[in-house]
Amino acid sequence: MKYLVSKIIPFSCVDGPGSRLALFLQGCNLNCKNCHNPWTIGRCNHCAQCVPACPHNALTLVDGRVNWDASACQQCDTCLHLCPQQSTPMAKTLSVEEVLTHVRKAAMFIEGITVSGGEATTQLPFLVALFSALKSTPSLQHLSCLVDSNGLLSETGWHRLLPVCDGAMIDLKAWGSDRHRFLTGRDNAQIKASIRLLAAHQRLAELRLLVIPDQCDYLQHIDELCEFIGELGDVPVRINAFQTHGVYGEAKQWRSATAGDVEPLAQALTARGVNTVILPALYL
């Protein structure tokens, strides 16, 4: 079987602990206004609107499908900004074995792989197959298998993945359902349930909170939030700072977060007993 892959980064130090191969899958079940990879949300329907607009003639329509010529592409991103599907013609369909070829090339220099997106769990059969293959291959089974997820996966889905997954890093993009729906288009009840389930199975590698000035609601619900975190056990909480780089639409006009926006939340969490709070390494 083939699966839709947006990008492979052989060596990353920002997608989990240590040096990791980061695999970004195409397609997401949220539509976040603040998404920094908005071209990974949708999937190409080969409408071909991007083809005549490409200034480097890297796109053609062949048998009704958009074809991307990597050798001609100058990475100008014109196609990404034009796509009505929030997709990319540069996504590739790869088999598990083809992905393993990339992993083998990097295996001596990485500590694990992280599958992200888009939303990794929208291609759950691929995740299970890939992680199972890694765990059963002697030369690769030392690599840890992590998922960077929005948490919008059913309990049944997580139980399929847990036996071969070493951990998940989950974003809780807002505490209140209404605020979460405003930011992402979806309610967050399932996401909270996923966080609880992963923590109960010692698979919650990291809980992530995103500070968006004037848009996030963590401080308004700080006592409820900290009670929730306290029930998870000693889980690291990473605070990320929203930046406008790469976003589309109205979020482009929002203010980027600074240390002055992030630190009040960090202090509030620490004061209420959250043991491990990780601050942004830098602010752009």
From TrEMBL:
<feature type="domain" description="4Fe-4S ferredoxin-type">
    <location>
        <begin position="43"/>
        <end position="64"/>
    </location>
</feature>
<keyword id="KW-0479">Metal-binding</keyword>
<keyword id="KW-0949">S-adenosyl-L-methionine</keyword>
<dbReference type="InterPro" id="IPR040074">
    <property type="entry name" value="BssD/PflA/YjjW"/>
</dbReference>
<keyword id="KW-0411">Iron-sulfur</keyword>
<dbReference type="InterPro" id="IPR058240">
    <property type="entry name" value="rSAM_sf"/>
</dbReference>
<dbReference type="Pfam" id="PF00037">
    <property type="entry name" value="Fer4"/>
</dbReference>
<dbReference type="InterPro" id="IPR012839">
    <property type="entry name" value="Organic_radical_activase"/>
</dbReference>
<feature type="domain" description="Radical SAM core">
    <location>
        <begin position="14"/>
        <end position="280"/>
    </location>
</feature>
<comment type="similarity">
    <text>Belongs to the organic radical-activating enzymes family.</text>
</comment>
<dbReference type="Pfam" id="PF04055">
    <property type="entry name" value="Radical_SAM"/>
</dbReference>
<dbReference type="InterPro" id="IPR023912">
    <property type="entry name" value="YjjW_bact"/>
</dbReference>
<dbReference type="InterPro" id="IPR017900">
    <property type="entry name" value="4Fe4S_Fe_S_CS"/>
</dbReference>
<dbReference type="InterPro" id="IPR013785">
    <property type="entry name" value="Aldolase_TIM"/>
</dbReference>
<keyword id="KW-0560">Oxidoreductase</keyword>
<dbReference type="InterPro" id="IPR017896">
    <property type="entry name" value="4Fe4S_Fe-S-bd"/>
</dbReference>
<keyword id="KW-0408">Iron</keyword>
<feature type="domain" description="4Fe-4S ferredoxin-type">
    <location>
        <begin position="65"/>
        <end position="93"/>
    </location>
</feature>
<dbReference type="InterPro" id="IPR007197">
    <property type="entry name" value="rSAM"/>
</dbReference>
<dbReference type="InterPro" id="IPR001989">
    <property type="entry name" value="Radical_activat_CS"/>
</dbReference>
<keyword id="KW-0004">4Fe-4S</keyword>
<dbReference type="InterPro" id="IPR034457">
    <property type="entry name" value="Organic_radical-activating"/>
</dbReference>
<protein>
    <submittedName>
        <fullName>Glycine radical enzyme activase</fullName>
    </submittedName>
</protein>
